[in-house]
Amino acid sequence: MKWMDPAPIKCSECGGTFPVTVAALKSLRAVCAGCAASLAAVGEGMFAEEARIGRQIDLFHVALELDERNGWNVLDTHDESEWTLEGLARSVVGFLPPTAGGIAAATELVAETARRVAPRLLSEVGLEASIADLKLRYAAWLAIPAKAKPRPTRSRPSDR
């Protein structure tokens, strides 16, 4: 991510605005030129913003790869308020045939795609544990007799 360098930083202690280099802010050792107060919180905020934006870009790459590889339209049907791997999996369910395994199969497909195009997403959210849990729940669901299973109520996005 590009930042204005030097960045005009307003000190929370003295209220003055001074130019501070991005390198100094990211070192978490920058101090205000007016009162020598620490500007570490500003540098931490920069790191947090870079991580947030990077995560959004990685999620976009996963959705784009799912679309391109499978001929789907996940990017258009995905609810951007749920811009997470789990949210992508819920969107993918609508593109899978009913016999494919529902959310467990969709989660595994999203995770496999993320492993290829954005592996750091998996380490962030612990999706590997979620996949294992979903597989167990799906296996339990398969063990329920067909007459006792609830009927699906969600239609595929392509049917709408």
Give the helix level as a range of percent. 55-70%
What general form does the structure show? elongated
Q: Give the uncertain stretches in residue-range form.
A: none
What amount of the residues lies in strands?
5-15%
- Helix and strand sequence: EEHHHHHHH
- Class by alpha and beta content: mainly alpha
Count of DSSP H/I helices: 7
What number is the mean pLDDT?
80
Looking across the biggest beta sheet, what order are the strands in? 1-2
Overall number of strands: 2
How far is the first residue's CA from the last residue's CA?
39 Å
Report the radius of gyration as a whole number of Å. 22 Å
Number of domains: 2
> How would you characterize the largest beta sheet?
2 strands, antiparallel
Task: Give a description of the structure.
There is one protein chain. This protein is mainly alpha-helical and 160 residues long. It folds into 2 domains: 7-38, no CATH class; 50-147, no CATH class. Helices cover 56% and strands 5% of the residues. It has a two-stranded antiparallel ribbon with strand order 1-2. α2 crosses α5 and α4 packs across α5 (102-117). The two termini are 39 Å apart.
